[in-house]
Each structure stands twice: as C-alpha cells, then as structure tokens.
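hey all, quick one before standup. I had two proteins in the batch that finished overnight and I want to keep them in one place so we stop losing track of which output belongs to which input. First protein below, input sequence then structure tokens straight from the run.
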Amino acid sequence: MKKSRPQLPSVPHHVAIVMDGNGRWAHRRLLPRVAGHRQGVESLRRCIRACAERGVKVLTVFAFSSENWNRPSDEVSGLMDLLATALTREVPELKSAGIRLHFVGSRTGLSDRVRAGLTAGEAETADNSGMVLNVCFNYGGRWDIAQAAARVAEAGEPMTEESLGRAMALAHVPDPDLLIRTGGEQRISNFLLWQCAYSELFFSDHLWPEFDEAALDDALMAFAQRERRFGKTSAQVAPNRSQALA
C-alpha cells in the first residue's frame, strides 16, 4: 500500500542537497563506484520531480566538488562521461518540465565536450519559469568566496557583505532554507559556505541512491517543525510563525 504524502505546514523555498553515498551503495553490492553514480542520477531525477511537486522553488545539488579531482582517475573519468551522457538525456526532459538549469562552479579543467554541454543545457532551459535547478559541478565553497572577492576587487567596489553576496555564484537565487546531506555523515564538506549561514541542516542516514520521496518528506517535515529565529528571540518570531501556519 502506497504511503500517503504528509501535509506540510510550510515548504522551504530553496533546498540544497549534498548527495553522498553513491560509492558506498555500489561497494555494498560489489559493483564499481561509477555504478553507484549512475544510480545516483536516477535518484536525482526522482528528487527533482518530487521537489517540484511539493512546491520547492529552487533545488541546488552538489554533484562534483573541487576536491573530487583527487579521487582515482578512472572514477573521475567515469563521472565526466556520466555527466556528458546525462546532459544529452536529461536536458530535454528538464526543458519539457519547465525547469531552469544552472551549472555552478569553475569550468577550468573540464573538457571542451563537457563545457559545451553545460552551456547548451543552460541555454536550452533559459526561458523556463518553473523550479530552478542549480547543479554545483567542480564547485567549492571556499572557491566561491575567493572568486567573489576577486570580482569585487576587480570592479573597484568596497568589500562588504552586500558586494560579496552579489558576486557569489548563486546570487541569482535566495540562500538555501534547508540543507540536506545523505549518507550518514554530518558535515557540509565545503558546500555553500557563504549561502548556508542560516540554513536549517538535516542529516539522513540514507545513501543517496536510496533517498526517495519518503526520505525527502522526512526532511521537509523536520524543516516545517523548526523555529527560524535569525538572531531574534522566540517571542519575536512567534507572531510571524502563527500567521504563516494560519
């Protein structure tokens, strides 16, 4: 019997996910690590659809970190091939679903084929007005802050929170309300260091290929039960919370 979807009193505008556990999922099944990454693409497809159905406006996922270049060369090569293949297969579906795609991260070191695929994927979905999907690829939070500081300095602007914020790689969307990490680890691993200053954190024991709609709903329900104070007291935010739940 299919479990009914819980009624959520509030849904985060922006959800960010560290998709961890592909390699361990494959290892437990005596499969090569790249098989776990392939299954992770299937999980991402499912998650994109579920987030859009639940009213999430922005989904940002950590697909490949700047530190992942240190992994075995065959795994890195397999990830690059998987990205190129996924772009060919998934972009038409994203376009049809009204989802707008952004790739966030440095494109230095990527092959011409991959860079062309990223650019084409963004162009194909640029006119869509549905959920925004940010795929962080060759991305690191420290890189993001450093590149933003360099842009501000090059423009000759004062170095302020506002000027840095405008120069960040995710300046086109609000900061994440909820950061989910799968795989049982409890760290953010250099992901959205600037943007997640006030994000609610949710750690799931599910490996990413096992993260389904029910697991997503668990995270969204946990978020709905959090009190977000942003430096204020409970008494100050209570009236706003009551109005939001009315």
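OK second protein, same deal, sequence then tokens:
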Amino acid sequence: MANDYGTHYLHLCASCRADNYVTCENCGALIPQEDAHYNDEDEAYCDSCYERGYGGTIHNYSYKPEPIFYGDGPLYLGVELEVDEAGKDNINAVQALRAFNQENVYGYVKSDGSLNDGFELVTHPCTLETHLQQVPWRETLEALRGMGYRSHAPGTCGLHVHVSRKALGKDVYEQEETIAKLLYIFERFWQEILRFSRRTESQINHWAARYGYKDRGEEILKEAKHGANGRYACINPTNTDTIKFRVFRGTLKYNTVIATLQFVANLCRVATSLPEYRIQEFSWPALIEALMQDNCPELVQYLKERNLYVNEPVTAEREV
C-alpha cells in the first residue's frame, strides 16, 4: 500500500504513526509510544533492546520485573551480585548488561543503598544447568573486573541466592519442613558455613546473622518466622515465592560464583530428600559427601581452597 507507514503486520497512516509510534534506536522495531523505554537522551528502545543494556539504566532498588524462567525446574536460582568501587554509572551498567544479555535477557541492574560506588546485577530465575551452560558468567565477571569493579575486596558486597519455594516441597507444609532442615544445617555447621561464605564475623553479624543453634530445625524456623534478624539473616525464609541465602560474600571470581550456586542447589537437594534425623547424624565430611552426588568440579575446587575438604593443598586465584 503506497500510503502505508506501518509494517508488514501493522498498517498505519502517516498521522497515526507520527502520533502513536516510535522506532527503537537500536533494532529499528516499530513500538507504541506507551511501551517504549527512554534513556537520558530521550532515545526510545523496545523491551528486548532496553533489557540488553542499549540505552540502559540502573533501576531503583524496588524494581522487580516479571520474572523470566530459564531451564526446566522446579529448582530455580536467582542471583544478586553486588559490585562496588567503580561507579554507580549507567555506561558501565550498559557494558555489563551487554556481556550478560548477549544471547538472552538473563538479568538487569539495580541500585543498592549498601554500596558506596556501585550497583547490583540481578538474574532472572535459572536452573543450575542454565547458570553453568548458558549464562555468560565468565565474560560478565571479566567485563566488571575490566571496568575496575570489585566485589570481595570492598567488604560491602554480597552474593545473594534466591531459591524457588516450589522446589522445596509440593505444599507449604513440605516447603517449611525443608527450610527448617536448611536452617538446621546452617546452625549445626556454622563455623564451616562462615568459612565458606568468606565473610568476617562482623560482616556476617551485620548483613547475614545467624538465628542461633537449636536441637530441631522447626525451632529455628519459628525464630526466623517471628522476624529475628529482619531480612539481614543468613537465610531469609519470609519471601512469598523464594527463600534467600544472604550469607555469601561478593566475588568476581568465576569458580567461586559457580561453586556457590552448586553448594546452594545441592544443599536444597539434600534437605528435600533426607529426613532431619539423618541430617542430624552428619559430620561435616558426611555432609560434603552427600553434596557431591553430582559432578561439581568447581565446588570441589572451592572447598579445597577454603580448607573445607580433606585434600592435598591447592593453588587458588585471588578473590576480587
């Protein structure tokens, strides 16, 4: 049609196009004005390009988009990786997102008041396999280091992991039973968990405090549900759809990120599959053996680096 100013799928007159539509600055897609995202230069972007970092922005702390689930669950892991010391900078955020979202929209960037000069990278829910095989963690961590960001070194940053509640049991009763077992494991092996976390005592008390040991997990869960420690707890079970592991210190080291995800996923598997009386019989080596049913070379390496695995000495890269 000679006077058609739309697309092959959308027919528009010149007036309707000018009044109601804009073109994506990156890919050229025609998008309704109310659906467009605008950057500081008032350039318009479609959803896909904007989430990939083109024209990107650092969202405010309360930003929570509709989650995109990657992989065949039910166990999904959502990561919040805080970085600091190189600027709460939109240009840097764009570079980070272009590395992270090069194939799919795996995540976005938010501000965080606990950071001095940085932001947090937040992932959509992904299975462990997706994190290992598809999410470009290695390239993204290299990009962040290259821009001068640090995560372990500042002491302000965390590596937080959300786990889907639906993976912990078929109903609320089973889910809370599993959460109680996870809390018991954390309290029973607190010194080992602390070493795994890489946090100092003062950092853990400030950002991810323990609830205190009790003989049964349900007693610890009762403390947690009554708001002990608020959200600054080693495991926060108060969210509707997830539980949040807050205990881990931030890092830009690839092996540590992957080992942490393997540790969390396998802890959830153990807590879901074994009764509490079996878990109460565990020593730390027995727990580690139970976690190693799957092939987890990154976790084995990390446990050796932290002297949490009976082994010969290993050489470790420096945390950043």
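Flagging for whoever picks this up: The longest strand covers residues 242-249. The radius of gyration is 22 Å.
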